[in-house]
Amino acid sequence: MKKSIFLCLLVFCSSSLVAQTKMRAAWVATVANTDWPSSQHLTVLQQKKECQELLNLAVQLKLNTIIFQVRPHGDALYKSAFEPWSDRLTGVQGKYPGYDPLQYWIEQCHKRGLKIHAWFNPYRVQHPTVKEPLAKNSLQRKAKSWCIYLKKGYVWLNPASKAVRQYVQTVILDCARRYDIDGIHLDDYFYPYKDFLPASGFPDAKEYSAYLKTKPSKVMDKEMWRRHQVNTLVYSLHKGLERLKPQLEFGISPFGIWKPGFPKGVKGTSSFDSLACDSRRWLREGWVDYLSPQLYWPESAPQQRFSSLLNWWKMQNPLNKKIVPGLASWRTEPKELINQMKRCEYDPKVHGFSHFSLGAIQKNSYLKQQLINYGRDRK
Hints:
3-stranded antiparallel sheet; Divisome_Glycosyl_Hydrolase; about 40% helix; about 10% strand; 9-stranded parallel sheet; Family 10 glycosylhydrolase; alpha/beta; single chain; signal; TIM Barrel
């Protein structure tokens, strides 16, 4: 009897220790002033106060990692020699905000024992919320040939351009080199979602024709060729960061469905086909330290069931890289959200969770209190 009780206690303590060491993260989105700063017209002191309030909430929630968006659309929330200061800070692209936001976030995170990952959007150059005038060193001014104008006011860099890929990597490695961050993070925007595209699709016929003229021994169709462009960037970043700062974690948060039918019964947008993202390969090849698939559906969703997708992703991980599911904290009912968090924390093949987003939790007083209570009860 005593032996059985001892074994139960041992298993419980081991499970609690595993749960404590996993990544408990939240995204902080700056695009369109989603989470921070709340407005383009705040003073430096007001911006810093909002930062502190968000991070104090992260501590209350017992989080340990902040994924902070530093490049929402070809701009910078840090001092960059390559790109203009983000208009999210002042309302004017290129205007110095009076301090270095990323450096401040790093200091405030580390002061609280939080890790901080710098989040980059690699290819988006213009968001509909960005207004003229553009800064002189905006990509739309200094590299017009790289820019592709899409629907709804979006402008994109061409993933098929070698010069673009080298530039994006240079920007990211420069930030990683100069700042005391704990990780680099990319989101799900590689080739754009169909909502942004003209009826004719992404305009890269010229680049694909140029590829065909090289007479490759094994011809890739256009979809495979696009995935190759994305894979090239991901692999290059993986190797570049490994050489520069091997202690940094490199993570990506792809759309949660790799392909419809994987697992059986799943339907929805295909990350593999529509966004040219072979996110399963990144995991299997070990090109990322963690993958945070956006599993933004409830257990009741018949064609995107949370547990079905999570179990499938667990099976795609032969190298035991970190799987850190993204949770739809802005729309999931609190009880279900907490159940998803528990599953991620106590499943030995899952390595934590990430809330989208910290600002969404802060704005929902009921959800915030429920998650604070859950964090308080955690061992």
